[in-house]
Amino acid sequence: MARQRTSVGMLHWLGLAFLFLLLDQISKVLILSYYQLGDSTPVLSWLNIVRVHNAGAAFSFLADASGWQRWFFVAVGALATIFILFMLRSHAGQRLFCFSMSCILGGAIGNVLDRLLHGHVIDFIDFHIQTWHFPAFNLADSAISLGAFCLILDEVLRVRRSRA
Description:
Elements: H1 2-34, E1 40-44, E2 47-54, H2 68-90, H3 95-118, E3 121-129, E4 132-133, H4 139-163
Antiparallel strand pairs: 1-2, 2-3, 3-4
Helix pairs in contact: 1-3, 2-3, 3-4
């Protein structure tokens, strides 16, 4: 009975990760369909939709490497996926923790798919203040960031509960 409950719980979290992955990939298909590389559309005074390709990781880390970074980041994403699946299975009853892991899983797979299909990640959200621009990002990056924030929150709450 406990094993069945764990499987159902894990399916719930995998479904959530799949939803994040699906939204990410749909948004990237739309960007690829309607924007050429470098195109930009102002949305608000501080937000543009752009089409940018990032061969590196966060903040274009290793973007200028000779190409090996594509496979390195695919391998890191694959290892992270295996680890997250293990963590989801081990902690299926911990809602905030599993929500965090699902966000990170969906986002990581979304960016790995980009690397496999295109050789780079498609980014399109551009926040800026006057001439300063935050590095462009995508929905997968947003899901990963949300997951990381919730993971930190989960740990803070866990520590507070253990002290009470």
